[in-house]
Amino acid sequence: MRRTLFLFFLLTSCFAFSQIQQYFFVDDVDYVEYLYVEICIGEDGKTTSVTEIPEKSTYKNKENINYIIEYRKQFDFYPESKFVNQCFEYSFKLVNSKYESLKATHINCKEKFERGKFIYISPETAKDVKIIRRKRKQIEKDKTSRSVYKIEWTSSSSYTLTHMKLTEPESQYLIGQKMEVKILDILDDGSYFYYANLSDRTYGFGIIKKK
User: Fold this and answer.
1) 29, 195, 11, 25: which is closest to 90 by C-alpha?
2) How many CB atoms are located within 10 Å of the residue 86 CB?
3) Domain residues of the chain, as ranges?
């Protein structure tokens, strides 16, 4: 049988059964697509339903979607969790399996992306977030917040962002923490596809476009 789903990301939180994977590697997306679901939790912390939100999802393979939904139904919360008797949205990411190795396909990235203005291409990131990148500093801002990072290129296809200043009070704990970013591929429109690792506990894939 053709390999379709792969484990990558394990998110440890207040789930009673320890771990749940958030990322799947598949063969039928170009880079990354998103599956949004609504999860409802009963009074005892048990998962009562997991339902696709098709108007928000960009991934369309129904067979794999059903697989992921059935997988998620196996996980429950602790009875004292704040999610008891509530429904909430959750997203899964489907990533092209050629990026499973996390190896870059281009090596001359630094010169192209070391400076300039950029935006995130993702339904999970606000469209008005602007990125301004200088030689040693990266600034991300929207209408209500501003974040400043120290940026250090560790190779021609990877860089480190160190949190320096954050306007949101709830994010102050991140100051001084580092995010390792690998540029895995350069797209035809000049955007780049990346993998990010924040302090070995939060992982992600995404696309950044140079303006």
Assistant:
1) 11
2) 12
3) 10-99, 110-210
* Rama region for 169: left / alpha / beta (φ>0; ψ in -120 to 50; rest): alpha
What pLDDT shows up at residue 72? Answer: 93
CA distances for 137 relative to 82, 131, 148, 171, 211, angstroms: 38, 10, 7, 19, 17
pLDDT tens digit sequence for 35-54: 999 999 999 999 999 999 99
Q: How confident is the model at residue 17 (pLDDT cuts 50, 70, 90)?
A: very low
The model carries a pTM of 0.81
pLDDT tens figures, 123-147: 777 667 899 999 899 999 988 889 9
Give the CATH class of 110-210. Answer: mainly beta
Write the DSSP string, the chain: ------B--EEESSBTTSEEE-EEEESS-SSEEEEEEEEEE-TTS-EEEEEE-TTT-----HHHHHHHHHHHTT--B-TTSTTTTEEEEEEEEEEEGGGTT---S-S--HHHHSSEEEEE--TTS-TT-EEEE-SSEEEEE-SS-EEEEEEEEEETTEEEEEEEEES-GGGGGGTT-EEEEEEEEE-TTS-EEEEEEETTTEEEEEEEEE-
Q: Quick count: other Cβ atoms within 10 Å of Cβ 206?
A: 18
pLDDT tens digits, residue range 62-85?
999 999 999 999 988 888 888 899
